[in-house]
Amino acid sequence: MDKTDTELMNLIQKSFPVHQRPYAVLAEKMQLTEREVMERIQRLKDAGYIKKIGATFDSNKLGFRSTLCALAVPEDRLDEVAQIVNSYKGVTHNYIRDHRYNMWFTLTAPSGEMLEETVREIREKTGAPEILSLPAKKVFKIDVNFRL
Amino acid sequence: MERNEDMDELDKKIIRCIQTGIPVSHEPFRSISENLQVTEQELVRRIKALLEAGIIRRVGAVLNHRHVGYLANAMVVWSVPEEAIESVGGFMAGQKEISHCYEREGYPSWPYNLYTMIHARTADECETTIRRLAESTGIRDYEILYSTAELKKASYTYFD
Hints:
The complex is a heterodimer of chains A (148) and B (160). Chain A has 148 residues and is an alpha+beta fold. Chain A has helices at 3-14, 22-30, 34-46, 78-86, 112-126; strands at 50-57, 65-71, 91-97, 103-109, 132-133, 136-142. Helices cover 39% and strands 26% of the residues of chain A. A 4-stranded antiparallel beta sheet of chain A has the order 3-4-2-5. In chain A, helix 2 packs across helix 3. Chain B has helices at 9-20, 28-36, 40-52, 85-93, 123-137, and strands spanning 56-63, 72-78, 98-104, 114-120, 142-153. Chain B has a 4-stranded antiparallel beta sheet. Chain B contains 5 helices and 5 strands; from the N terminus they run H-H-H-E-E-H-E-E-H-E. At the A-B interface, helix 1, helix 2, helix 3, strand 1 and helix 4 of A face helix 1, helix 2, helix 3, strand 1 and helix 4 of B. Strand 6 of chain A pairs antiparallel with strand 3 (98-104) of chain B, so a sheet runs across the interface.
């Protein structure tokens, strides 16, 4: 990754041009050729720095509902519970955290009812005595931007 | 275009296509528009409209942040007095180290109501940031939950 790659990644994280020739638009901003921009981005993808260039959505505006869940999972059941939780398409992020509540996952569903039903089902299937469901009451910020 | 009902079938198909990824090619939206049997201009116009409506939050690069050196990622949960939640939430939102900030309801066994995702290159950097935030906001009741393993990291697939 050189300085130009860094600059390019900062630029395209914030916004990728929605345009017929988006790489040409980027080339102009960066004072590079379109080909070089395309080559650099491809290389950064191949090297695993860029996961993808795509759209992220406001799931609420699409009619979906989501929540953040937490479980306190005994050490010896972590793998088993992880497999159950991860098997749900609605579970997008699942992390082990260093706390009594050690498994934290986000869950999205097409409606509030389906969301609650899935939370209940996960609790039953995992045999957890307790599940915390912590939907957002207010969003102060969603802005993923790793400055390089 | 304000609500879900104002989106038509074509918008949903567009969402389905662009969520997976935009290719590296001279006219990356051309192949998508051909698949959907619309003109490239129409596709670009609709994506811009969805952006304008806030249905699409962003079209941009998603990085593998650990690969680019952000190794310390912590969720910090804060117990903020009701009357201060707006100003503290707003303050946190203005911090560059914080990617996500939400207000959530607390439970008796879990009284935290403000959740922040903090990213740094090292644990030291992360701790320094957290200390600074605690001092600036005066919130002393908080817990740091470092992620020690990533079990799943995917995007939700809409309308598939």
